[in-house]
Design brief:
With 209 residues, the protein is mostly helical. Helix content is 71%, strand content 0%. It starts with a helix and ends with a helix.
């Protein structure tokens, strides 16, 4: 059962946060220009610094969402940059993924995380069924944890219950998007990528035990 009081407190904090837009944009522009740096991950180091990493990736996802206005891109970019995965073409490919093409269905905090699991647990060999199985099992575990934390998987349900307080699909029309922005939706909905990446990063790090 989600802790709705804690979620509401976080939503309110995000709504009133002072965002360093110039610094966030500069970081994203650097990644767009230079690409996502590859990293040689040290399991011992990751496990020793787990809480610091989780805090950092959550903040990055919240910031990305505010600037990019795209929860799927915000989620994937935070995770991919943290773990040195993929490239910016993948971020471009995620452009239509918030609410699955703006339909109000599966949240980008989920899809952005699932993309990252594919990059981390998957294989360059499409016939590697063991890697496929591990990736899907991790995805299923993540989906369960996400729903336990947020209460829903669909964008419009999350907006109604957790972030805005009434049913709204910002992708259905220009008017709906304007209403979403007026309600500080891009600030408040940073909650979901933030929680999503924290859960996803923890699964990635714990897999190295």
């Amino acid at each position: 059962m989600p802790d709705y009081a804690a979620l509401k407190k976080k939503v309110d904090e995000l709504a009133e946060r002072e965002w360093d837009v110039a610094a966030i944009e500069a970081r994203i522009k650097k990644l767009a220009k230079e690409g996502i740096p590859k990293k040689k991950l040290d399991p011992k180091e990751l496990l020793a610094n787990k809480q610091q990493i989780l805090n950092r990736v959550q903040l990055r996802a919240e910031e990305n969402n505010f600037v990019l206005k795209n929860c799927a891109q915000a989620t994937a970019l935070a995770l991919m940059a943290e773990f040195g995965l993929g490239n910016m073409e993948i971020i471009r490919a995620l452009t239509p993924f918030p609410g699955i093409g703006g339909t109000g269905e599966i949240c980008g905090g989920i899809t952005g995380s699932l993309i990252t699991f594919g990059l981390f647990f998957g294989s360059d060999n499409p016939l590697d069924y063991e890697a496929k199985g591990k990736t899907i099992r991790t995805a299923q575990k993540f989906m369960t944890l996400f729903e336990e934390a947020i209460g829903h998987r669909h964008c419009t349900d999350i907006i109604e219950t957790v972030t805005i307080g009434y049913r709204l699909n910002p992708g259905e029309s220009e008017e709906a998007m304007m209403t979403f922005a007026k309600e500080k939706g891009f600030e408040k909905c940073g909650l979901v990528p933030g929680i999503g990446v924290r859960l996803a990063a923890e699964l990635i790090i714990d897999s190295m035990k």
